[in-house]
Amino acid sequence: MKTRDPDILCIGSVLWDMIGRCEQTMQAGNDKPGRIRLIPGGVALNIAMTLAGLGMRPALLSVIGQDAEGTALAAECTRLGLDTTHLTHAPDLPTDRYMAIETPDGLLAAIADAHSLEEAGARILSPLIDGPLGTPQVPYQGRIALDGNLTEALLAEIAAHPAFASADLRIAPASPGKATRLSAFLRAGRGTLYVNLEEACLLCEAPLTSAAEAARALVERGAARALVTHGGAPCCDATADGIHTETPPPVTVTRVTGAGDTFMAAHIAAERDGYDRPEALRRALAAAATHVSGGT
To answer: Number of structural domains, the chain?
Structure first.
């Protein structure tokens, strides 16, 4: 049976998440009991999984190793209904990993080992540049969810590359430590940025105090559109034409990893379904609240 054509491309990290969860407050150096889960993860994959659950048909552009971890991860992605046709299977690179420790107070620490994605570089973009998804002469015209785990040089290339000129680019930084990698999209005036307040401050090089202030600042610095979250505080969607703010529903936080990815995916799906900016923002915040509260 032929796989349906994708309606969004998810470009970036596809890896295994190792998440340790302790129900007690922890500090650096603590050794406490808890639960450890190994689950499919990475920003691009988290977004793709959420989009698939919302009725979209995501295709993954990333790299996995030709190792047992990569074989198992590709099989799990297929089982989840994701299009893995365009994944790069690298014989010379291991499958990437992410490790995090979460407590009732939030994320205690995390390490992202996305070195294979960085080393693979432009290899993962071949289907968009050399076909079958697109070429510089006939660029891809659909939605693309892009994450900041790619190198700064490759992200800058994407911001200016003719093969991406007609795409609806939706961009996430992956983590505060990688937020400044998105500066090329500010300079190019391309794409919709999905960031939290800390990431917005780093991109703007300023101590901003609210999502609305941060979203305005990003637009002033060149962003075509910026969505800024701030935990349980109001969130903002800004363009040069104006801003919309919405307060997330109050929830008890039981997990934090993947919350921003869920927000972004739900927002993309809501706009695909024709909802206006205020309603799309409300639906994205509701989805993220369900995620952090431990719901499905």
So the answer is: 1
